[in-house]
User: What shape does this take?
Amino acid sequence: MIYENQTFDQERALYGIKDSLIKNCRFAGPADGESFLKECKNIEVSSCFMDLRYPLWHVTNGKISNCEMTENCRAALWYDSNIEISNCTMNGIKALRECRNVSLKNTSVKSPEFIWKVDGLTIEGVNILESEYPFFEVKNAKICHLSMKGKYSFQYDENIEISSSYFDTKDAFWHSKNMTIRDSVIKGEYLAWYSENLTFINCKIIGTQPFCYCKNLVLQNCSMEQCDLAFERSEVRAEITSRIDSVKNPLNGFIKAPEIGNIIIDESFNGKTDCKILV
Assistant: This one.
């Protein structure tokens, strides 16, 4: 079935359709209906304008390309599986939640609470202009060429690979486990507290008080800027290529750097630490 060059604004306009192409359609209008593509299967949505709430819930096997989702397109994709999104703009809050097997490519995003509780995620060439708490409780993801500006990203995540990306964020990677970040820039305060099994390779780290209360933290060939009070109570193996402003109370492992401005060992450590600090 093909739906082309039509306008829909009623409640559940195309509810439950299967094996269909929706092309050059507008989902907007005075009826202000919700859930216009709910419970659909095997659909392709191309070059559509979406200005209504909750459009794509419980969809199985969907392709969405060259579409615009406005600020009114709230909670666009929930409880879906096997979804491919490409060349879209996504501007509604809570755009993706509790989905499985999602691919997101060449897309622009402005969405608070973006991508929550998604299992099986691939991202390539995505620009997140603004978000808060993006990538919350995400599992099993591969991310490449992601540019992001937001707050409180990648919290409680597991099994994530990130490469060639740029993050302007704060409180990122809190409580996350089993992540590898390569060839990326991470700018923000209080990075990766309470994390476990995080590895940073060829990365630039910018911002105050990074990597505290970490377990099995590894940094290989990384640089650090404006990083003070780093590694507090962390298990760390770090090879840093630049100055670290200060290091405070690392638990164990080793830290290598060409220069460390200040090494702080509190009385609670009896003036000692099991971490080797090599300058």
About this structure: The chain has a mean pLDDT of 96. Residues 9 and 34 are 8 Å apart (CA to CA).
